[in-house]
Amino acid sequence: FDAAFHINNSRPASRIVARGQNGKIRVSKATLHSNVSSPFVAEALACVEATKLGINMGLDLVTIMGDSKTIINKCQTTVKDKSILGAIIDDIQRNKFGFQKIIFRFIQKAENVEAHDLAKEALRKEEERYLVDETREEQALERRWPQNPD
Predict the structure, then answer these.
(1) Do residues 14 and 128 make contact, with C-beta atoms less than 8 angstroms apart?
(2) Which terminus of the chain, N or C, has fewer Cβ atoms within 10 Å?
(3) CA dihedral angle for residue 36, residue 90, residue 81, residue 14, rounded to 10 degrees
(4) Domain-embedded: residue 120
(5) Does residue 83 have a pLDDT over 60?
(6) Cβ contacts of residue 94 below 8 Å, gap of 6+?
(7) CATH of the domain at 58
(8) CA 66, CA 44: separation in Å to the nearest integer?
(9) Which residue ranges does the record assign to the RNase H type-1 domain (predicted)?
């Protein structure tokens, strides 16, 4: 997960990229948020969206990876968070019960480029997206239209 934050209008976009065990993208989701006070809140919202997506996909075992060490650390603990992120972290903690096993893992920004770039693109285009099994859909379209339909 990752988020992009536009400081002038307090409008972030979060992007979640869900991969299967083989590493291929299964689902990609971009969400626009409004009235968000900080980039930390934007990152926390992206994380809660990732937990919701896992539940909606019916997954039992998940690893949620993000490049915000603060958010990942808050998700790994069971101590009540009293910061501005508290309510969002509570949502994440409640969503943990939707899985048999959930792991929150910090990754470097360099490992999270895809999610970050897609979040920035969603923010720039002001566009939400939800794509399921992108590669299969693209392959199906290529079979249907081997050449440009125009």
Answers:
(1) no
(2) C
(3) -30
(4) yes
(5) yes
(6) none
(7) 3.30.420.10
(8) 10
(9) 1-122
Residue range 25-54, pLDDT digits in tens: 788 888 888 888 888 898 999 999 999 999
Query: Over the chain, what is the mean pLDDT?
Result: 81
30 domain-assigned: yes
Nearest to 16 by CA among 73, 74, 59: 59
Q: Is residue 104 part of a domain?
A: yes
Q: Alpha-carbon distance 91 to 86, whole Å?
A: 9
How many structural domains is the chain composed of?
1
Q: Does 100 map to a domain?
A: yes
Q: Give the predicted TM-score (pTM) of the model.
A: 0.77
Q: Note the pLDDT of residue 121.
A: 76
Q: Pairing relation of β-strands 11-19 and 25-32?
A: antiparallel
